[in-house]
């Protein structure tokens, strides 16, 4: 046991040195860098659409790249594909297991995926005359918390078994398994250039992974509780995380450290989801207290609130063209705001 | 106070922190001086003390927080849903009515956060009491629960029935008003913590999570990896914060005109005006692109490549320069990287024939070292075998062709021809607002000519009745 204690000490010592190196690179803070920027206007968004159709808690939603279609997953055991502009339900996909926790839309628009407490990621083809199950990806030993398509042939998943995996949809097998987290993985986000992705977990860490070689390239600490939501800044140089510790943080990948935090003493509920506006200036964060707060990413101030849900905001999404924000909630409704 | 659960890994987790917020408000609502004025309420022939009407609640909320009645009603509803206030008339219907319907504050003894989790034994006793009083006439779902509990905790059933009888006897000795109040409180509590099937369960807080998952062993192997990982991390190059942060400021500034939520969009935001012209004008196959779109191509090489129209334009330019094979090669490599695994060998072979083999029809100019490495890799083709070559060509285009394209006549002409859409004025007439047409109706078209300074729709800053004030 003595040897292990020593190794533990060595790992800790290295961590301290890393912190020192990070401090050395930190020659200014966001407040100074953004001092010349005009504050964002008070953002007041109205509900433009309320999508009613689910009969139970909505756990996840994802926009299609065409900016109009979206998929939502609810514990009533259905995936609903909406034409959100008209409010019509285009498709309903019945799920084998109703304990769904995530859903994803492929960039091509041909496929959607879902997964949850069944530990599997199921992929469906929307373009066949009748929606068919294309593959059941079954190798995780814990619940599926998040899934994202890279293309029609590859999908990334994060799981409660602490691993993330890259799957080949042709063979249905895992191509790469990303191991490093010690707590359940709760979320993942793909980088704009698709060469890497980040994951957030219940060990309060966010990790950056190289998709090609399967290695964890960077680890970001600072949160004191589960990281429930994660997203890349549109330039691809930073990530934003949302946690059960009631704060959001922005980490810069090149400086390898936290650059600003988004918190407020009056907010005492965890962040469940987040999404960024097209310019990256606004961060829409959904909270456990049924609201979605809007943060100015450069100034670190709250500039607006979206309230109207009767229960936790479980998912948030901004479409590619940035025209609006969608919030999904445990009250079974999806709302579109702008 | 809120719910604390002890999860599998021994870590205390706070759940539903919204309850703390609600309780703060409920307490202030009951303040003897500043709270809601309570009075006696007549229920059939009994007088119930300390009651209030639905409209009292709504009005107090409006006054205290300076919010709209819509929002006050919404917040009031939440109190009823989560069991902090319960209705005296129609107790099974947990909604707040903004009229003279009577309501009461739930006693803290029966707050969700106080008695967590709701005990099965208590529920059994409650149902047993009801069963005795109603002589077996329980509601369907309650009957099912009762029977299920009877099976499950059969060994303590005598205790359950005894307790139920005892509690009923004790309540008979109370004043009628007190008895009714206690019954209402208890019923309200169980309606919230054991909701009837088909209604939303408000106390579910999601699947259980582990901070320290038992799958991961904290052994020597683990720490060895940690040390390695930390060593690499220590050695990495870190860019100074000032440079990084500067880039975000610049990025936000550059993209602000492209951010419809920050700055609106032309002709109009389809979600506000229900006019989809914006999407039509920016579709892939449009004849003349918008100015914003063409400007975006100058922000970065990736922006140009990500837009199919941009790629097409760039290809036309490269053809003039006799270097179109570069872009074609790049696209072919993307296809290999993101396409089907089974097709990789044949695709890679095609790429070799067309672009890499000596004397190929569209030979790309790669440095000898990269070429050597790639050709070696082609012997065992895999998804990333062309990565190095692709990267080389990508940077070649980015550093050389791309800047020249932006300075070219082709780009400049397109930018000059590109259109700035006319702003669609939102119709002023209220009855028009709800219509959804795929194109503006002729009636609307004539209205757009009308000038109303107030109808500024492209600015997305609008007043919102749903904005919450500080709770």
TrEMBL record, chain A:
<dbReference type="InterPro" id="IPR020472">
    <property type="entry name" value="WD40_PAC1"/>
</dbReference>
<dbReference type="InterPro" id="IPR019775">
    <property type="entry name" value="WD40_repeat_CS"/>
</dbReference>
<dbReference type="InterPro" id="IPR001632">
    <property type="entry name" value="WD40_G-protein_beta-like"/>
</dbReference>
<dbReference type="InterPro" id="IPR036322">
    <property type="entry name" value="WD40_repeat_dom_sf"/>
</dbReference>
<feature type="repeat" description="WD">
    <location>
        <begin position="51"/>
        <end position="92"/>
    </location>
</feature>
<protein>
    <recommendedName>
        <fullName>Guanine nucleotide-binding protein G(I)/G(S)/G(T) subunit beta-3-like</fullName>
    </recommendedName>
</protein>
<dbReference type="GO" id="GO:0007165">
    <property type="term" value="P:signal transduction"/>
</dbReference>
<keyword id="KW-0853">WD repeat</keyword>
<feature type="repeat" description="WD">
    <location>
        <begin position="306"/>
        <end position="338"/>
    </location>
</feature>
<dbReference type="Pfam" id="PF25391">
    <property type="entry name" value="WD40_Gbeta"/>
</dbReference>
<feature type="repeat" description="WD">
    <location>
        <begin position="220"/>
        <end position="261"/>
    </location>
</feature>
<dbReference type="InterPro" id="IPR016346">
    <property type="entry name" value="G-protein_beta_1-5"/>
</dbReference>
<keyword id="KW-0807">Transducer</keyword>
<comment type="similarity">
    <text>Belongs to the WD repeat G protein beta family.</text>
</comment>
<dbReference type="InterPro" id="IPR015943">
    <property type="entry name" value="WD40/YVTN_repeat-like_dom_sf"/>
</dbReference>
<dbReference type="InterPro" id="IPR001680">
    <property type="entry name" value="WD40_rpt"/>
</dbReference>
<feature type="repeat" description="WD">
    <location>
        <begin position="178"/>
        <end position="219"/>
    </location>
</feature>
<feature type="repeat" description="WD">
    <location>
        <begin position="137"/>
        <end position="177"/>
    </location>
</feature>
<keyword id="KW-0677">Repeat</keyword>
From TrEMBL, chain B:
<dbReference type="InterPro" id="IPR000591">
    <property type="entry name" value="DEP_dom"/>
</dbReference>
<feature type="compositionally biased region" description="Polar residues">
    <location>
        <begin position="438"/>
        <end position="448"/>
    </location>
</feature>
<dbReference type="GO" id="GO:0009968">
    <property type="term" value="P:negative regulation of signal transduction"/>
</dbReference>
<feature type="domain" description="G protein gamma">
    <location>
        <begin position="223"/>
        <end position="299"/>
    </location>
</feature>
<dbReference type="GO" id="GO:0008277">
    <property type="term" value="P:regulation of G protein-coupled receptor signaling pathway"/>
</dbReference>
<dbReference type="GO" id="GO:0005737">
    <property type="term" value="C:cytoplasm"/>
</dbReference>
<dbReference type="InterPro" id="IPR047016">
    <property type="entry name" value="RGS6/7/9/11"/>
</dbReference>
<dbReference type="InterPro" id="IPR040759">
    <property type="entry name" value="RGS_DHEX"/>
</dbReference>
<feature type="compositionally biased region" description="Low complexity">
    <location>
        <begin position="456"/>
        <end position="465"/>
    </location>
</feature>
<dbReference type="GO" id="GO:0043005">
    <property type="term" value="C:neuron projection"/>
</dbReference>
<dbReference type="Pfam" id="PF00615">
    <property type="entry name" value="RGS"/>
</dbReference>
<dbReference type="GO" id="GO:0007186">
    <property type="term" value="P:G protein-coupled receptor signaling pathway"/>
</dbReference>
<dbReference type="InterPro" id="IPR036390">
    <property type="entry name" value="WH_DNA-bd_sf"/>
</dbReference>
<dbReference type="InterPro" id="IPR044926">
    <property type="entry name" value="RGS_subdomain_2"/>
</dbReference>
<dbReference type="GO" id="GO:0005096">
    <property type="term" value="F:GTPase activator activity"/>
</dbReference>
<dbReference type="InterPro" id="IPR015898">
    <property type="entry name" value="G-protein_gamma-like_dom"/>
</dbReference>
<dbReference type="GO" id="GO:0035556">
    <property type="term" value="P:intracellular signal transduction"/>
</dbReference>
<dbReference type="InterPro" id="IPR036388">
    <property type="entry name" value="WH-like_DNA-bd_sf"/>
</dbReference>
<feature type="region of interest" description="Disordered">
    <location>
        <begin position="429"/>
        <end position="471"/>
    </location>
</feature>
<dbReference type="Pfam" id="PF18148">
    <property type="entry name" value="RGS_DHEX"/>
</dbReference>
<dbReference type="InterPro" id="IPR036284">
    <property type="entry name" value="GGL_sf"/>
</dbReference>
<dbReference type="Pfam" id="PF00610">
    <property type="entry name" value="DEP"/>
</dbReference>
């Amino acid at each position: 046991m003595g040897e292990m204690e020593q190794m533990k000490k060595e790992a800790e010592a290295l961590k301290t040195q890393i912190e020192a190196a990070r401090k050395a690179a930190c020659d200014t803070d966001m407040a100074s860098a953004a001092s010349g920027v005009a504050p964002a206007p008070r953002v007041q968004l109205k509900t433009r659409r309320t999508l009613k159709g689910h009969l139970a808690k909505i756990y996840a939603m994802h926009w299609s790249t065409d900016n109009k279609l979206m998929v939502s997953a609810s514990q009533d055991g259905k995936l609903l594909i909406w034409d959100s502009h008209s409010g019509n339900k285009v498709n309903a996909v019945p799920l084998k297991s109703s304990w769904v926790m995530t859903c994803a839309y492929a960039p091509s628009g041909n496929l959607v995926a879902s997964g949850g407490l069944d530990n599997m990621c199921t992929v469906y083809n929307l373009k066949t005359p009748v929606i068919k199950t294309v593959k059941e990806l079954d190798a995780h030993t814990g619940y599926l918390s998040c899934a994202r398509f890279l293309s029609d042939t590859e999908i990334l998943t994060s799981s409660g078994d602490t691993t993330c995996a890259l799957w080949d949809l042709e063979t249905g097998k895992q191509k790469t398994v990303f191991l490093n987290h010690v707590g359940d993985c709760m979320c993942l986000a793909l980088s704009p250039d698709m060469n890497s992705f980040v994951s957030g977990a219940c060990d309060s860490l966010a990790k950056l992974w190289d998709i090609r070689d399967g290695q964890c390239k960077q680890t970001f600490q600072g949160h004191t509780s589960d990281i429930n939501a994660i997203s890349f800044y549109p330039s691809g140089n930073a990530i934003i995380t949302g946690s059960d510790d009631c704060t959001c943080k922005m980490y810069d990948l090149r400086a390898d450290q936290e650059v600003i935090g988004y918190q407020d003493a009056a907010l005492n509920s965890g962040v469940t989801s987040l999404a960024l506006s097209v310019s990256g200036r606004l961060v829409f964060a959904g909270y456990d207290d049924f609201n979605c707060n809007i943060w100015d990413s450069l100034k670190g101030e709250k500039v607006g609130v979206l309230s109207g849900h009767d229960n936790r905001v479980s998912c948030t999404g901004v479409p590619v063209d940035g025209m609006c924000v969608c919030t999904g909630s445990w009250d079974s409704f999806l709302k579109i705001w702008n | 106070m809120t719910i604390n659960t002890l999860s599998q890994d021994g870590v205390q987790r706070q759940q539903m922190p919204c309850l703390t917020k609600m309780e703060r408000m409920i307490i202030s609502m009951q303040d003897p001086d500043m709270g809601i004025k309570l009075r006696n309420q007549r229920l059939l022939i009994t007088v119930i003390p300390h009651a209030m009407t639905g409209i009292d609640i709504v009005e107090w909320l409006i006054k205290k927080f300076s919010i709209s009645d819509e929002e006050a009603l919404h917040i009031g509803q939440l109190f009823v849903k989560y069991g902090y206030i319960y209705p005296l008339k129609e107790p099974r219907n947990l909604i707040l009515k903004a009229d003279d319907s009577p309501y009461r504050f739930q006693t803290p003894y029966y707050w969700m956060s106080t008695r967590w989790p709701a005990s099965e034994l208590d529920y059994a006793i409650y149902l047993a009491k009801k069963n005795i009083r109603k002589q077996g006439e329980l509601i369907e779902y309650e009957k099912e629960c009762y029977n299920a509990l009877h099976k499950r905790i059969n060994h303590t059933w005598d205790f359950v029935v005894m307790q139920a009888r005892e509690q009923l006897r004790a309540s008979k000795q109370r004043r009628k008003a007190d008895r009714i109040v206690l019954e209402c409180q208890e019923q309200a509590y169980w309606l919230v913590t054991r909701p009837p099937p088909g209604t939303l369960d408000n106390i579910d807080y999601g699947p259980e999570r582990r901070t320290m998952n038992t799958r991961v062993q904290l052994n020597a192997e683990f720490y060895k990896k940690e040390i390695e990982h930390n060593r690499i991390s220590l050695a990495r190059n870190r860019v100074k914060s000032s440079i990084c942060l500067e880039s975000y400021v610049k990025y936000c500034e550059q993209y602000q005109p492209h951010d419809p939520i920050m700055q609106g969009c032309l002709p109009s935001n389809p979600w506000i005006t229900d006019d989809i012209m914006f999407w039509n004008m920016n579709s892939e196959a449009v004849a003349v692109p918008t100015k914003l779109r063409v400007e975006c191509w100058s922000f970065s090489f990736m922006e140009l490549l990500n837009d199919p129209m941009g790629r097409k334009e760039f290809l036309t330019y490269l053809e003039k320069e006799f270097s179109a094979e570069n872009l074609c090669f790049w696209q072919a490599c993307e296809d290999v990287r993101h396409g089907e695994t089974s097709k990789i060998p044949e695709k890679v072979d095609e790429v070799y024939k067309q672009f890499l083999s000596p004397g190929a029809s569209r030979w790309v100019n790669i440095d000898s070292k990269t070429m050597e490495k790639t050709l070696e890799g082609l012997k065992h083709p895999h998804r990333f075998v062309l990565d190095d070559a692709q990267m080389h060509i990508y940077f070649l285009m980015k550093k050389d062709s791309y800047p020249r394209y932006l300075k070219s006549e082709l780009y400049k002409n397109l930018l000059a021809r590109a259109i700035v859409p006319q702003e669609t004025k939102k119709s002023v007439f209220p009855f028009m607002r709800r219509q959804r047409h795929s194109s503006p109706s002729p009636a609307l078209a004539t209205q757009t000519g009308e000038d109303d300074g107030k109808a500024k729709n492209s600015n997305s800053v609008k007043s919102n009745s749903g904005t919450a004030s500080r709770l």
